[in-house]
Design a protein that fits this description.
- With about 575 residues, the protein is α+β, with helices and mostly antiparallel strands.
- The chain has 13 helices and 19 strands.
- It has 2 domains: about 300 residues, 2-Layer Sandwich (Beta-Lactamase), CATH 3.30.450; about 160 residues, 2-Layer Sandwich (Heat Shock Protein 90), CATH 3.30.565.
- The two termini are about 65 Å apart.
């Protein structure tokens, strides 16, 4: 059975702890999710700004090249003049290492280089960007990324203005970008070529022209573009461990700017806030449980005191009282409990007085019943002996009467003594069939006078048990006498013997009036009888004798049908000596 304290604790948990834990879980989840989303959005803003700066850098360089082309078109300048213009522009704008004018056949007309030109018009692999052709990026002799940019000249000579775009400034711009302490930016072209990386340890990857097609964000940014989105984010692992990455797309160039930051650094604040919130919730939970425990103990304490007091009363400790100091309903219940205990003490004492009076009355009535007849017979015989003292025949009759009645008185006194202190019994092997047969034979006359038939049903063979012949005969005589007294004329008393495993069974059954069911539990108690008169010691003494000999006795009865007493004794392997058997 669940204790009330346990149920109260569960109620407290259901009413307060569970909602608090639910609120804490939702709060922690919301805080973690919201803070992580804020970090991701912040890094995405950085990536977008980097993409805008790169866009401005490249578009500015292209604008410079277009300005040079505009200065050279439709001016009628001589070759040496064009050469001077190209060299001046290269000196003024370090974004270009070389500017060369090529004819439609790819032959150099004029160049800013002193030596042979190193540029050519990009082929079909080039990118059309803002009206110019932009080649794939490569690494020059200084291991810096570079690309070829070509602008069509619209004059009578035709041809192309081709420049070598230097991306060293792009490197410096990417190197200057830091997200936290260990977050870097990297730039990937449309064909998954790495052209810039902010991590100094990763510069060699740019020189090797590493293909990063397998990078999680490169493939993802290409997929989300079909959904009209230019950003993406992911969490993955690399040589630095778990990483948070975000990507922003440059639509005009087809490039991707990626910001990578170790996850533990990126989410340091959310993790710290999550721990702080968790600790705050735990402290609040412990404080609430502590307050609930103290308050609950004060609330449940009086109830537990009442429970202990009730259990003590049930165990017979009527001096138990409860101390309930509250003034509420529980306090009133404690006061009522103490008043009830006081009343129980008074009632118990009154019951004890009445029980003693009833017991003494029952003993007195039984003694009067059991002793009055023998004493009256002795008294009447004494009166007659005075008148008939000279009659020898009457004197013999007087002697037999006195001895018989004194024996009856002695049996009553012995019963009282045996109830208080059972006498020790002798144990020796006995045959139950033989002892019962001898006893039943001696009681046949009594049964015939009462108009009752005694029947015997004995198992074949012998049933050897260890017992006291006199004591066992007393038990059997008590049971058979009770059966005869409870059976009306023309009834039957059946005495059976049987063997049940290692035990012998003796049953004394009658066809009498039976015993009410409510009286069966007390029929073997002292001074309890179903008769109108007598002390009620016969069955109590019989039970004590049977138990002294290691046996058991039980009763089954049905009103109007009859009663059956069953005695069980363990069988023994011992046998009487020859001398005892002969005797």
């Amino acid at each position: 059975m669940t204790k009330i304290s346990t149920r109260f604790a569960l109620l407290l948990a259901a009413a307060a702890v569970v909602p608090l834990l639910g609120y804490g879980a939702v709060s922690v989840y919301s805080l973690r999710t919201g803070a992580q989303q804020a970090v991701i959005l912040g890094n995405l803003n950085v990536a977008r700004q980097v993409a805008e700066q790169i866009e401005l850098y490249v578009s500015g360089s292209v604008s410079i090249l277009k300005a040079v082309a505009a200065d050279l078109q439709q001016t009628g300048l001589l070759r040496w003049q064009k050469d001077r213009i190209l060299k001046n522009f290269v000196l003024q704008f370090p974004e270009f290492n070389e500017l060369t004018i090529l004819d439609d056949n790819g032959a150099a007309i004029v160049s800013s280089r002193l030596g042979a030109p190193t540029v050519s018009v990009p082929g079909s692999e080039g990118l059309n960007y803002q009206g110019v052709l932009l080649s794939r990026f490569s690494v020059d002799d200084d291991l810096l990324p570079t690309a070829i940019v070509a602008v069509r000249l619209n004059d009578e000579a035709g041809g192309w203005l081709v420049g070598r775009l230097n991306l060293e400034e792009l490197w410096r711009m990417v190197d200057r970008i830091r997200v936290g302490e260990r977050g870097y930016a990297l730039v990937v072209t449309g064909d998954a070529q790495l052209i810039a990386h902010g991590d100094p340890a990763a510069k060699s990857r740019v020189a090797r022209r590493d293909d990063v097609q397998e990078h999680p964000l490169v493939s993802r940014i290409n997929n989300v573009l079909s959904q009209a989105d230019t950003t993406a984010s992911a969490q993955y692992s690399d040589e630095r461990g778990p990483v948070l990455g975000v990507a922003a797309r440059l639509e005009s160039l087809g490039w991707t700017v990626i910001i990578e930051q170790p996850r533990v650094e990126a989410f340091a604040i959310p993790i710290r806030l999550q721990w702080q919130l968790g600790i705050a919730i735990a402290v609040a939970l412990m404080a609430m449980l502590g307050i609930g425990y103290v308050w609950g103990f004060r609330f449940i304490g009086p109830i537990l005191a009442l429970t202990r007091g009730t259990r003590a009363l049930a165990e017979g400790k009527l001096d138990e009282r409860v101390k309930v100091e509250t003034k509420d309903e529980i306090g009133q219940l404690g006061l009522a409990f103490n008043n009830m205990a006081d009343k129980l003490v008074e009632l118990q004492e009154d019951v004890r007085k009445k029980e003693r009076q009833a017991l003494f009355g029952r003993i007195s009535i039984g003694l009067v019943h059991d002793l009055s007849h023998p004493i009256q017979n002795i008294g009447n015989s004494c009166k007659l002996i005075v008148k008939m003292f000279d009659d020898l025949e009457y004197r013999e009759n007087f002697k037999r009467t006195v001895e018989r009645e004194l024996a009856q008185v002695k049996r009553v006194l012995d019963d009282l003594r045996n109830i208080a202190r059972p006498l020790p019994l002798d144990r020796f092997p006995l045959d139950l069939n033989k002892t019962l047969s001898d006893l039943i034979e001696s009681m046949q006359t009594t049964a015939e006078h009462a108009g009752i038939t005694i029947e015997t049903e004995q198992v074949l063979g012998t049933l050897w048990v260890e017992g006291d012949l006199f004591a066992l005969n007393r038990v059997y005589r008590n049971l058979i006498t009770n059966a005869l007294q409870a059976t009306p004329p023309r009834g039957r008393v059946i005495v059976r013997t049987n063997r049940d495993g290692d035990s012998s069974v003796v049953e004394v059954a009658d066809t009498g009036c039976g015993i009410p069911k409510e009286r069966l539990d007390t029929i073997f108690d002292d001074f309890v009888t179903t008769k109108r008169r007598g002390l009620g010691l016969g069955l109590a003494i019989s039970k004590k004798i049977v138990e002294q000999l290691g046996g058991t006795i039980s009763v089954a009865s049905e009103v109007g049908v009859g009663t059956t007493f069953t005695i069980r004794f363990p069988l023994t392997q011992a046998r009487p000596t020859t001398k005892l058997a002969a005797g």
